[in-house]
Specification:
The complex is a heterodimer of chains A (about 190) and B (about 675). Chain A is an alpha/beta fold and about 190 residues long. Chain A is about 15% helix and about 30% strand. Chain A has one domain (about 5-180): OB fold (Dihydrolipoamide Acetyltransferase, E2P) (Beta Barrel). The chains are: A alpha/beta (about 190), B alpha/beta (about 675).
């Protein structure tokens, strides 16, 4: 299938499978709601704002996969420090992590209790930071969302000290504002 | 410890047994090996069986009276104490294991506030020693690596002493299955394991790849040409419906295991790596005869079937510990070849974080790694293990002499000048792509394999050929387990185009194994499955053309031709051995008796359905069969919950070729296969 058709198929299937989480079920109920209009992707997005690059999950790594594992692509390395827009699913985490969330190419769930078995989380999850509310959590947002902000590359430990992220987005003001409205105390 | 002091507890125990002891108290809630004699009082059937000298652990869970603790214990077989020093060959040397070192008593020593509830029962919480629901003074007592040489049924008795001097005891039994000497042995054992492959799967592959004319098959699958076939009962220790872990291990250690457990009996401790072990065929024959072990699979190598040939754990999902144990215990198993998917478990993850993973995509994590207790290390001569998510396991394999091949090109190159002594192949991050998509890639349509990031994966017959070349270098012979894993995985997903090609790919690997056995007559090859998956059934064929199906994907039952309306579907086979296309006019149609809801179009999807173990599935993959083709296909309501078809309890066919093949006829239990192989490899055939 040509890339362009694959991309359309991605969007179609992603939309059809909104809210259908492919990974584990969890005993802990997770707060979940529809994504607000400012973040939801309901149709093909228009061109990104000026100086913003669309970064796709499939472009994060050099392909094919290397003998010693994944390697960041030239595209990803070049995007470090620049403004990017990414489309993906918020990982349904239980409990929710402080001050941000994980963005995934697939609708997946992850819980601390069974994380050791959560081998179906795709590689290349992107951490979306919420710097204005570092001690707050976000509800899970169903469906595809888009996030625009500055891309950071490099290992950084989470506030809880239990996770290390390697690719992060620090949202632009508009995205940050939309997320901040949803943030609440853990 | 002096001789006197070492024997003192034994003498005390014997004296206590013979004297007029206090009345029995407390209970034994589990006695391992499992037996009906212990569970129900019935002498038969005998559940646990072993070959002479095959090692296994003795264990009991003892619930003392309130306020009492267990102070000592002894296991007796036929009235004789079992405690004895062992001399066992480990890594080519004879090592003496003192009996005291191979024993343990596990009690709830975790924080009382966390591990014991208000009712005085264990909670089974994280950080605790015992599972939930036991009295807080419960003791799990173990004697490691016991073996017995005398054939016949033997009585097993546990006697434990409480702190007030009273004793608790219980009785079970086990059997040693004798080996008749004097025959001609098979040096090499090849187990071809079609995961989930029932009779329907074999038939579908024959219809597709060989075709029928006027009721006669126009050709035979390689597995059809095996001269002997039997039917195998596949139940596990705790269900009529097995999963792949006991489904495999029951063949290669002779004992029923619980679902999700590999090479162990169930226990009452939380530790997934301390369960009572049962020696595998590969370990037993490596110890006795110096054979090598080869494991080849199309799945992630940590998956249940490959692991249940060499790994001992009660949690089949503990990937980090499982792949580590492959290498660490090679001196016990003789592991020489390991090929399949699962590269993500072999990459270092210094930060021990998997959500998100490090940039190299490593899935290693301390929470599913392993460290063994002292008694297990001492009794079995096993490696202790370490919590080391930062381990570079590929480098460690290479350091141990394995040639690492990440793709087909590297695999071919590794054999260009000489046959490697040891071989590691990791051809995908998790499960390898299926034949349907790999073949498409080789024919120039790399849509799926490119999206997964692994465009150059070998086929199973190519892997089999290379594995057998390496294994054949050992003059003492080998045990090889070669698995077509995705017959099962694609049957779960009810993908009626992808699993038939998996069977065809498997059959091509079987042909390689058969050729090896023809050239090496001291070889036994068996083709079997761990269980049937999905209740697959060939219900007939489409009454319309492929174009008509594509034009009306919601046609459903209206296009299903049954009986004579099915006629004989005619597939064209390309030079590579696979159908030119599965989408033909009047194509074969498959139904499922163990199905979840699905939308059926009778046509394949471009992308395979999302594999929950595959971290690199394209976004375009349908999430599961219950949403695949939603809005387009015909809804078929499932009989089971969830969104995948399930395993069934149906007997499965087994076919055998080579030395000793005649033993595999009739209807037999999956554990019987182990004893047949033991006879063929050690006692030989007349």
């Amino acid at each position: 299938m040509p890339r362009s058709i694959a991309a359309q198929a991605f969007a179609l299937v992603a939309l059809l499978s909104c809210g259908d989480v492919a990974a584990h079920t969890h005993s802990e109920p997770v707060e979940s709601r529809e994504a607000p209009r400012a973040l939801a992707v309901k149709k093909e997005l228009g061109a990104p704002p000026k100086d913003v690059v669309d970064l796709k999950f499939r472009d994060l790594f050099a392909m094919p996969v290397g003998p010693r594992g994944l390697e960041p692509s030239d595209t990803l390395k070049a995007a470090a420090g620049k403004r990017v827009r990414m489309v993906g699913f918020m990982v349904q985490q239980s409990p929710a992590t402080l001050g941000g969330f994980l963005l995934s190419p697939l609708p997946v769930a992850s819980g601390d209790a069974d994380e050791d078995l959560a081998d179906d989380l795709p590689p290349g999850l992107v951490r979306v930071e919420l710097p204005s509310h570092p001690d707050r959590v976000l509800p899970h947002l169903r469906g595809l969302i888009h996030v625009t902000g500055t891309l950071e590359l490099g290992a950084q430990e989470s506030r809880e000290g239990t996770r290390i992220s390697f690719v992060r987005i620090v949202p632009d003001r508009k995205t940050e504002r939309a997320l901040a409205k949803l943030a609440h105390a853990p | 410890m002096s001789t006197l002091s070492r024997h003192a507890p034994l003498a005390l125990a014997l004296a206590s047994l013979l004297s007029s002891a206090p009345a029995l108290a407390g209970t034994v809630s589990r006695l391992t090996p499992p037996s009906e004699l212990f569970a129900s009082g019935a002498e038969a059937p005998v559940i646990a069986r072993f070959l002479p000298g095959q090692r296994f652990d003795l264990q009991a869970t003892i619930q003392p009276d309130a306020g009492q603790t267990i102070t000592s214990f002894e296991f007796y077989v036929d009235g004789a104490p079992t405690r004895r020093d062992q001399v066992i060959p480990i890594g080519g040397e004879l090592v003496t294991i003192p009996s005291t070192a191979a024993r343990s008593t596990v009690t709830e020593t975790g924080a009382a506030a966390t591990c014991v509830n208000a009712s005085g029962r264990t909670t089974g919480a994280s950080g605790c020693k015992l599972v939930a629901g036991l009295p807080s003074n419960t003791a799990v007592v173990t004697q490691r690596a016991y073996s017995h040489m005398e054939p016949g049924v033997h009585a097993l008795k546990i006697v434990a002493w409480q702190s007030d001097g009273s004793r608790i005891s219980a009785t079970g039994n086990f059997e040693i299955v004798g080996i008749t000497p004097g025959g001609t042995v098979a040096k090499n054992i090849i187990i071809m394991l079609g995961d989930g492959m029932g009779a329907s799967h074999r038939t579908a592959a024959r219809i597709m790849s060989k075709g029928y004319a006027q009721g006669k098959a126009k050709g035979r699958l390689a597995m059809d040409t095996f001269p002997v076939s039997g039917m195998v009962m596949t139940a596990s220790l705790n269900s009529i419906v097995t999963d792949s872990a006991p489904g495999m291990q029951n063949y290669v250690n002779g004992n029923k295991g619980n679902n999700n457990e590999e090479g162990v009996f169930p226990d009452d401790t939380r530790d997934a790596f301390d369960n009572p072990r049962i020696e595998y065929l590969a370990e037993y024959l490596h110890m006795l005869q110096g054979k090598s072990l080869g494991i080849v699979t199309t799945s992630d190598v940590f998956d249940a079937t490959p692991a249940a040939n060499a790994i001992h754990t009660s949690a089949r999902g503990n990937g980090t510990g499982i792949v580590d144990q492959f290498l660490d215990d090679r001196h016990l198993t003789g592991l020489t070849v390991l090929m399949g998917g699962g590269r993500k478990w072999f990459l270092p993850n210094a930060g021990d974080s998997t959500s998100p993973q490090p940039l190299n995509g490593s899935q290693r994590r301390s929470s599913n790694d392993y460290v063994l207790p002292d008694d297990l290390v001492a009794g079995w001569g096993a490696s202790r293990g370490a919590i080391d998510p930062g381990r570079d396991l590929i480098a460690d394999f290479e350091g141990a002499g394995y040639t690492y091949t990440p793709d087909r090109t590297a695999l071919d190159a590794a054999f260009a000048t000489r046959v490697p002594d040891k071989l590691l192949g990791l051809y995908a991050f998790s499960n390898m792509n299926v034949a349907f998509d790999k073949v498409a890639g080789r024919r120039g349509n790399g849509t799926v394999v490119d999206a997964y990031g692994f465009p150059d994966q070998p086929m199973l017959d190519e892997m089999t050929d290379k594995a057998l070349k390496v294994l054949a270098k050992n003059p003492n012979g080998f045990v090889a387990m070669i698995e077509a894993a995705s017959i099962d995985k694609q049957s779960h997903l009810m993908d009626s185009d992808r699993w038939p090609l998996e069977v065809i790919e498997f059959d091509r690997a079987i042909a390689v194994a058969k050729r090896f056995a023809e050239q090496n007559p001291d070889t036994i090859v068996i083709v079997t499955a761990d269980h049937e998956c999905s209740g697959a059934a060939i219900i007939g064929a489409a009454t319309v053309t492929a174009a008509a199906l594509e034009a009306d994907p919601d046609a459903g039952q209206s296009v299903v031709g049954v009986y004579e309306a099915a006629k004989f579907p005619k597939y064209t086979i390309a030079g590579d051995g696979y159908p030119v296309t599965t989408v033909i006019d009047n194509r074969m149609l498959i139904g499922y008796g163990a199905n979840a809801d699905r939308y059926e179009t009778w046509l394949p999807t471009v992308y395979p359905t999302l594999d929950s173990q595959q971290p690199f599935s394209p976004s375009a993959s349908p999430a599961n069969p219950s949403v695949r083709n939603q809005g387009a296909g015909f809804l078929i309501t499932g009989q089971v919950g969830g969104n995948q078809a399930v395993h069934t309890a149906t007997d499965i066919p087994l076919s055998a070729y080579g030395r000793g093949a005649a033993a595999f006829t009739g209807v037999f239990d999956n554990t019987d296969v182990f004893f047949k192989l033991g006879q063929i490899a050690i006692g030989g055939v007349q």
